[in-house]
Amino acid sequence: MDASLEKIADPTLAEMGKNLKEAMRMLENNPRRTEEENGKKPVSEDIPGPLQGSGQDMVSILQSVQNLMHGDEDEEPQITRYENGCAYFHEEEREGLAKICRLAIHSRYEDFVVDGFNVLYNKKPVIYLSAAARPGLGQYLCNQLGLPFSCLCRVPCNTMFGSQHQMDVALLEKLIKDDIERGRLPLLLVANAGTAAVGHTDKIGRLKELCEQYGIWLHVEGVNLATLALGYVSSSVLAATKCDSMTLTPGLWLGLPAVPAVTLYKHDDPALTLVAGLTSNKPADKLRALPLWLSLQYLGLDGIVERIKHACQLSQRLQESLKKVNHIKILVEDELSSPVVVFRFFQELPALDPAFKAVPVSNIAPAAVGRERHSCDALNRWLGEQLKQLVPQCGLTVTDLEADGTCVRFSPLMTAEVLGTQGEDVDQLITCIQSKLPVLTCTLQLREEFKQEVEGTAGLLYVDDPNWPGIGVVRYEHANDDNTSLKSDPEGEKIHTGLLKKLNELESDLTFKMGPEYKSMKNCIYIGMASDDVDVSELVETISVTAREIEENSRLLENMTEVVRKGIQEAQVQLQKANEERLLEEGVLRQIPVVGSVLNWFSPVQASQKGRSFNLTAGCLESTEYTYVHKVQGTGVTPPPTPLGTRSKQRLPGQKPFKRSLRGSDAVSETSSVSHIEDLEKVEQLSSGLEHDNLEAQGPEQPPGAADLTARQTEALQNKAQHQEDDHSQVEELERLR
């Protein structure tokens, strides 16, 4: 290879060949099949000669580049099924459409070169964009062309028939007629062959007829244009080859780095294309196509088709698998050709039916529809983030659609080649989706129950935050809580911080966090997703009791601090008073150092031991006389008991908090326990009766066998009690295992 590169006459190309050697190896992710393995394929007239087959080696490619640079050829090689077209290569994807708009303006306004803006002012041009177009496209065109935003016309999508992501052709025609009546000039229409959100294709054939009728330039863009390289192409996408221009992004489709986008167009006036910036006489501008040209030459038709076909097969595999999964809705237009799959989680509950069924929105309360829509959007956003972490090879994205809400998008044509997505990754994705469905359904079912429990509990406030993907949000209202103020609440923050710590220490399957992230509202406790059946009443009661305990303990500590401070002051006063009394009792002479010692030697003073102790429970000073007399410390006042909940649930061994136990097993356990206790009582009564008979005075002799019969009855009852106890132990063990 290196020796062959040295034979090339141009030293620059030889150096470039060495640098591109490693880069071209990056394009070969998988071994390509040889012609002997594939068999010879028929040559198509639509495919340029250099692209036919399985590609070329680097020496041949560089030799062709040398011939192009030193020769007189000015034409660019043809790409796709687009016939008799010219190509414009650009780095920014939207740049080609902006140049096409300039070409359309110069074509429709003959005096634009001379009069400029005055021509547009007298007859304002109109650019039509679909409501499903990629965000920011219209603003970009107006900024590049120097046009006001009033020159944009947003065409709504279908609402009654057809896909909700396809342009409404009938409404478009009405808009065109209205613009003509108002003295405007319909200039250009941007159609989609694969919308940016869900990959749906507009009715391009019908749009082409409409554009020819009113003299409008038709431009097409979208990810589905990549399927033009396949053997089978849907009729809706094939109609794009008859448009006036189209934009292709082969770098994204084929996983090629640093490859420009291509805009193909048809126009007969080279002077206008030069003015519009679509053609250039500068050699540097022609070299923009070099990275793409080298990559396509290296891949060949087989490599291009293989990568596009692989992406479409991944999409079809995911679609077929998702059809078998409950609670998953697929937004699919054409299952055979669309390389994009968009899906979302949904569940029809009795309280949520109006939000999902196809009924007029006017017949449903807007607040209810909006709340349930936001709740499902939050759950789908959580699902998308979880799947992105679990299966990063699939390159999933979370997108918000105006008509359908938050969805998860799988577009292997844009990511599969870079991430190396394979069929096994799609199977793993399906497994992860199925594992998350129980969590989603359980959480959605518990949200309303949690709301009702919180609203029925004193001291708790339910916070309606539909964007939170969990059971719900709750806030504890303390005694000094001001609901009308949004100022900082240190006491409430302290209580909620302690509550969050206590809840996390319970080691339950639920997740707790304190919010919100933005300080626009007061502190709350956010409860996460539920992975199993949760006892909501126990959860709410635990939150209420724990928060109340934290508040009372905090107030007790504050009160104790104040009591201790007052006790210290009182102790200082009493100590000073005791010193004064001792001074009066002993006299002044005893306070003089030398005289006092002599006087105390001749006449000792019998001083009583007086001390003070502070009772924290009673909050007062007490005398230590009792301690000195009885040699024990006083018991003082018994502290008040800690407040507990109204009910305490007995959990089985190994059962985590907030788990709802099986009612059938509980009934069996309770019945067994009651029966066991009754049998034990009978045995005790019978035994006491026998002992009483033996201790009584000798009475008439018992009949033969009476003692044996009583003993057998006693033994039978004891055996029955033992069996009941064994059954009860087995039930408890079964509950623990469950």
Short structural description:
The protein has 25 helices and 17 strands.
Characterise this structure:
By secondary structure, the protein is α+β, with helices and mostly antiparallel strands. Among the domains are: 58-279, 3-Layer(aba) Sandwich (Aspartate Aminotransferase, domain 2); 311-350 and 365-440, Aspartate Aminotransferase, domain 1 (Alpha-Beta Complex). Strand 2, helix 8 and strand 3 (152-155) form a beta-alpha-beta unit. Helix 5 (95-108) packs across helix 8 and helix 17 (366-390) crosses helix 19. The longest helix is centred in the C-terminal third of the chain and has 51 residues, at 536-586. The chain starts with a helix and ends with a helix. Mean pLDDT is 75; it is low at 1-9, 29-43, 68-78, 350-365, 639-648, 663-677 and 690-710.
Major β-sheet strand ordering:
1-7-6-5-4-2-3
User: Structural class, judged by helices and strands?
Assistant: alpha+beta
Oligomer: single chain
Helix content class: 40-55%
Figure out the total of helices. 25
What is the overall silhouette?
elongated
Task: Quote the beta fraction.
Answer: 5-15%
Rg of Cα set: 43 Å
State mean pLDDT (0 to 100 scale). 75
What is the name of the CATH class of the domain at 58-279?
Alpha Beta
Note poorly predicted spans.
1-9, 29-43, 68-78, 350-365, 639-648, 663-677, 690-710
Number of strands: 17
Enter the CATH topology name of the domain at 58-279. Aspartate Aminotransferase, domain 2
CATH architectural category of the domain at 58-279: 3-Layer(aba) Sandwich
